[in-house]
Write a structure and sequence with these properties.
There is one protein chain. By secondary structure, the protein is mainly beta. The protein has 3 domains: about 100 residues, Pdz3 Domain, CATH 2.30.42; about 40 residues, no CATH class; about 130 residues, no CATH class. About 15% of the residues lie in helices and about 40% in strands. Strands 9-8-15-14-12 form a 5-stranded mixed sheet, with no helix packed on it. Strands 7, 10, 11 and 13 form a 4-stranded antiparallel sheet that branches. The protein has a 3-stranded antiparallel sheet with strand order 1-2-3, covered by helices on one side. Strand 5 and strand 6 form a beta hairpin. The longest helix is centred in the middle third of the chain and has 20 residues. The N and C termini lie far apart (about 110 Å).
Length: about 280
């Protein structure tokens, strides 16, 4: 009779930040590699050591290691940035059942870039990590109050020259375009989310204006070409009969601004201003 024996082989789970890996052997979790001079080596861990339990800090402690998937086991055995991980082990030799395992690296520069974090991520923080996180949230809120989101049009206004008379007409425009129906306000929209990144800008009103391309960044400049002034209204601005004179026309444009870390878009407004210079024929 031919008997086939299937062996279930588990791959190593690497705990890269502190330089060691573990493998499951039945109900045991055993260290199978330790990088020389790593944090794990300096803590006294060596190949063959059994990790029996993680005793802290919360929420790392009290989980059955052998029943965890690779990702969960890797997360559990990776020390937090600001305090040591406490392990209960069975060493190959000697008697050092408790090991304090600390990271030697620092959080990356963008570690807090996207705060506030999702609730499920915050729930996994240790008490020390939560203290650091909450201090960063308070700092970000204070910075945000001092640097609120803003939108602004450049230039402040455009100038169009109208020649008056029995048949008034637009004779000159500094920038932008015009035809018999509309005058197009052309310039740039400066957008900032303060200390956060801009994730998008959308025109809400007036309906039908050109949309902006998907743009991200800390400070964004978007080209604007808005046909928001009716040519007959521009010509009518010079119907007072007094020349030379100047008349200001305004058009409010409502925008939705999406900022990183803010689930709700903010509604903001800018005013496109058109200075109409009325001159004699």
């Amino acid at each position: 009779m031919l008997t086939t024996v299937l062996l279930l082989v588990h791959a190593s789970v690497v705990i890269e930040p502190v330089g060691f890996s573990v493998v499951r052997e039945g109900a045991d979790v055993k260290i199978d590699w330790v990088e020389p001079k790593s944090a794990a080596a300096k803590a006294g861990l060596e190949v063959g050591t059994l990790i029996l339990n993680v005793t802290g800090p919360a929420p790392h402690e009290g989980k059955e290691l052998a029943n965890l998937g690779d990702d969960a086991l890797r997360e559990l055995l990776t020390p937090p940035f600001f305090e040591p991980l406490r392990l209960f082990v069975k060493p190959v030799k000697g008697f050092t059942p408790r090991v304090m395992l600390s990271r030697t690296d620092q959080p990356p520069a963008d570690y807090y870039a996207t705060i506030p974090w999702p609730a499920e991520r915050v729930a996994k923080l240790t008490s020390q990590e939560r203290t650091m996180y909450e201090s960063q949230v308070r700092l970000r809120q204070a910075q945000g109050a001092a640097n609120p989101p803003r939108v602004a049009l450049q230039p402040a206004n455009l100038i169009v020259t109208v020649t008056t008379g029995p048949k008034p007409s637009i004779s000159k425009m500094a920038r932008g375009e015009f035809n018999a129906q509309v005058v197009t306000w052309a310039g740039a929209l400066d957008v900032s989310c303060g200390i956060a990144n801009v994730e998008g800008v959308k025109v809400v009103e007036p309906v039908g204006l050109p949309t902006f391309p998907k743009t991200t960044g800390s400070n964004v400049k978007l080209p604007v070409a808005w046909p928001v002034f009716k040519t007959p209204d521009v010509l009518k601005a010079c119907a007072t009969g007094k020349v030379p004179t100047s008349v200001m026309l305004d058009q409010v444009v409502k925008l939705e601004l999406a900022c990183a870390g803010n689930s709700q878009a903010q509604v903001m407004s800018v005013t496109a201003s058109l200075m109409v210079d009325c001159i004699a024929p």
